[in-house]
Amino acid sequence: MSQKLENVESIRPKREIKGWLSLPDFIFIIVVTVISFFIRGIVFPLFEIPFVIFTFLNAVFLVKPPKENPKQKNYNMLWLILRRYFFKEYLPFRSIDVREFK
């Protein structure tokens, strides 16, 4: 009767396959690789297989968490960079020039 009760943080099962690779990430890698396999005809014939391998490696890189922010994925960090520099959503702070208000 001396069972220890513990708080449950989450009752949802983790969808991790191994380490940092989760099920949605694995499906993303498979889908990108299959798409690259089907469009390999647009590449010079000598480079078709390296194209598929390179696309697979890029997909693996995108789903890995970066060392600087291990709670995010590389594709999330890439999206933040694109939003900041191309869509101008997060403009840097600047000092207020008093002459602008006169």
Report on this model:
The chain crosses the membrane at residues 20-39, 45-63. Keywords: Membrane, Transmembrane, Transmembrane helix. Pfam families: DUF5592 (PF17332). InterPro entries: DUF5592. The chain is mostly helical and 102 residues long. It has one domain (16-90). 43% of the residues lie in helices and 5% in strands. It is built from three helices and two strands. It has helices at residues 23-38, 48-63, 74-85; strands at 16-18, 21-22. A two-stranded antiparallel ribbon has the order 1-2. The longest helix has 16 residues, at 23-38. The protein is flat. The protein starts with 15 loop residues before the first strand and ends in a 17-residue tail after the last helix. The model has no long low-confidence stretch (mean pLDDT 84).
Instruction: Order the strands across the largest sheet as they lie in space.
Output: 1-2
What's the N-to-C terminus distance?
78 Å
Instruction: Give the biggest sheet.
Output: 2 strands, antiparallel
Strands, total number: 2
Structural class: mainly alpha
Tally of individual helices: 3
Shape: flat
**What is the chain-wise order of helices and strands?**
EEHHH
Average of pLDDT: 84
Helix content: 40-55%
**β-strand amount:** under 5%
Output the radius of gyration.
22 Å
Domain count, please report it. 1
Low-pLDDT residue intervals, each spanning 5 or more residues: none
Keywords: Membrane, Transmembrane, Transmembrane helix
Transmembrane segments: 20-39, 45-63
